[in-house]
Amino acid sequence: MTGRRTHVRFPFGRYLHPVGDDFVQVEIASGIVLLAAAAVALVIANIWTRGYNDLWTYELTLGTGGLSITYDLRGWVNNGLMTVFFFVVGMEIKRELVEGELRDRRTAALPVIAALGGMLVPALIFLAWNPTGAASRGWGITTATDLAFALAVLALVAPRTPAGLKLFLLTLAVVDDTGSVVIITLFYSGDVEVSWMLVGMGVLLLLIIASRLRAPLQPLYVPLAFAVLWFCTVKANLSGALIGAVLGLITPARSRDERHVLHRVEAPLHLVASFAIVPLFALANAGIQLGPDDLRAAGSSGITWAIVVARVAGKAVGITLAVALAVRLGLGRLPTSVTRRQILGVGVLAGIGFTVALFIADVSYGGIRLADAKIGILASAIAAGFLGSCFLLRSGRPTMPTGR
User: Fold this and answer.
1) Distance in angstroms (rounded) separating the CA atoms of residues 256 and 263
2) CATH for the stretch 13-395
3) Own/partner pairs for 385-389, CB < 8 Å, 24+ apart?
4) How far is CA 252 from CA 92, 93, 94, 373, in A?
5) Could you report the per-residue pLDDT of 80-128, keeping only the tens digit for each?
6) Where are the domains of the chain?
């Protein structure tokens, strides 16, 4: 990747192995923080259950009359603050398209094809398990990869893996994020309020024009976009993920004075999203009750088992088969010094889905189904992390490049 980036250092010493970009360092450190936040939420929810639930179900209204929005605290995190997370996702996608792995079609072909296989196969497994009814709504839970967790595990258990393998995982996760935004928008939005949608589209059109003119509009992208466009999106009954990602995608790479606008906007927001918003999201959503009755109910739930099988086995099978097919057909080639066994290990790691998976679970289910889905997400993340680590530890370092 090219371009000048804001240099960031973290006190995690030997656990940080960048791939020429501080973005990866932030993701690895974020994965560690996210794991800690999820663990804290689990402990609090099982020790202080009533207080935890009362806190996150406390309702708060902003505005008045027809210009008001009411959510509980968990809703404000999931539908409000997470828009910033998806804004960063959109900028990640834009950066990869402009100056990263997605710029070169031949280099990007393999992880893109792998990501598509890693989304399709798990979704089909889930729907085969839950083909109809309300349970089938959760198929989107199986598609996303949690890049922060996956990179953290990769750095911890296999720090000497080839740089190409880390870039493969990074690009695959970015494509997964793109697919997740599309899935959330198309399948997890409610009935659209056309009037509010048109107002939002008008404001968005003005920002797109300003972006095309490469105007120095950094102050507008954050306050105006998130105040006006987010409000219109919520009122239109659309997902905040959509507007966040779109704003990220239209952020100009450079202004007219050739300053790196994308980098300057992304760097601080990436830190905020990684070390404040996503951990807060985990605190609000990872508080899964793990009492005997809860585990017994999840153990007999088709939703729980479908998520575990789809994420742990389906992701690995989909990614590995897609890579094998792409290489055989000449559509892509393995990165230098990367083996097929390492691809399988990364495919298993891609089954770690947490942030976006919990986000989709929240809009898919309620009540006991949501609890079953969350236990499935937690169990699949643990299983995928453990099995992926085992594959990568056994893979070792290749003795020769495998470019064919």
Assistant:
1) 15
2) 1.20.1530.10
3) 385/149, 385/153, 385/349, 385/352, 387/312, 387/348, 388/150, 388/153, 388/345, 388/346, 388/348, 388/349, 388/351, 388/352, 389/153, 389/157, 389/158, 389/349
4) 12, 12, 9, 38
5) 888 888 888 888 878 777 776 667 676 778 888 999 999 999 999 999 9
6) 13-395
**Whole-number Å distance between alpha carbons of 314 and 131:** 16
* CB atoms closer than 10 angstroms to residue 30: 25
Token pair for residue 341? Answer: 């066994």
* pLDDT, tens only, 327-350: 898 888 888 778 888 899 999 999
Confidence check: pLDDT of 224 > 70:
no
**Weakest mean pLDDT among 34-48, 95-109, 212-226, 235-249:** 212-226
Question: What tokens appear for 96 in the block?
Answer: 């990869």
- In degrees and rounded to multiples of 5, residue 337 shows phi and psi of 70, 15
Q: What is the dihedral of CA 170, 172, 173, 176, to 10 degrees?
A: 160
